[in-house]
Amino acid sequence: MSIIEAEHRTALPPSIRVRLAGPRDCEALVALLDEPAHAREQVLTWLETPGTTLLVAQSEIGVLGVAVLLTRIMPKPGGGMHKVVEVDNLVVHPDQRGQRIGRRLLAAVVEWARQRRAAQVEAVVGEGDARRFYESFGFAAAADRLVLAA
Ligand SMILES: CC(C)(COP(=O)(O)OP(=O)(O)OC[C@H]1O[C@@H](n2cnc3c(N)ncnc32)[C@H](O)[C@@H]1OP(=O)(O)O)[C@@H](O)C(=O)NCCC(=O)NCCS
Question: Which residue lies with its CA nearest to atom 35 of ligand 1?
């Protein structure tokens, strides 16, 4: 690749739009995931499970990333119930990272959740790059969750 092409790619991220995924995206989604052996089963499960929504970042070259969302009705800390959207997975194609595609997908997730009157968007992550990605967007740790491994 020439220097001009390299600079061009850094300066201009691919023009993308975010849309809902469907069964015709199965192969592209499988290609995004790390473990080919389990990827197809995983993608089919996501596509078939009620309450699971897939948003994909699409450019002219194809699907560049996916956000897997779980929508739940949960007890509110102060009583009552509210709708929560959990980002179960968010993956950008390894060749396309660092171009704000993940951030763009996350912004679409928040917009999607707001349109459905969700009270909050959650992400469960350990320490590391993924945590920094969510924190850089504005996510903050909430101490009101008690969890028991099933
Ligand atoms: C995490 C991931 C989705 C980020 O996607 P991306 O398109 O490369 O991220 P963006 O370019 O939108 O980055 C947005 C911000 O997140 C932070 N960030 C992104 N990747 C980061 C990394 N590897 N380390 C630290 N911070 C990072 C930065 O603050 C960045 O802002 P900047 O560009 O001003 O530095 C991508 O690296 C990925 O698919 N990782 C493997 C799967 C994963 O860990 N997913 C998250 C848990 S579900």
Answer: 98
Ligand 1 centroid to Cα of residue 98, in Å, is 6
- The Cα–Cα gap between 56 and 92 comes to 10
What does pTM read for this prediction? 0.89
Place of tokens 């660092």: 98
Distance 93 CA to ligand 1 centre (A): 11
> In this predicted model, what pLDDT tens digit does every residue of 55-79 receive, in sequence order?
999 999 999 999 999 999 998 878 8
* Spatial separation of the C-alpha atoms in residues 120 and 64, rounded to whole Å: 26
Alpha helices in the chain (DSSP H): 3-11, 26-32, 36-48, 101-115, 129-137
Q: Which of 97, 122, 134 to mutate to test the pocket of ligand 1 (most atoms within 8 A of CB)?
A: 97
Q: What is the CATH number of domain 14-137?
A: 3.40.630.30
pLDDT of residue 100: 95
Write down the domain spans for the chain: 14-137
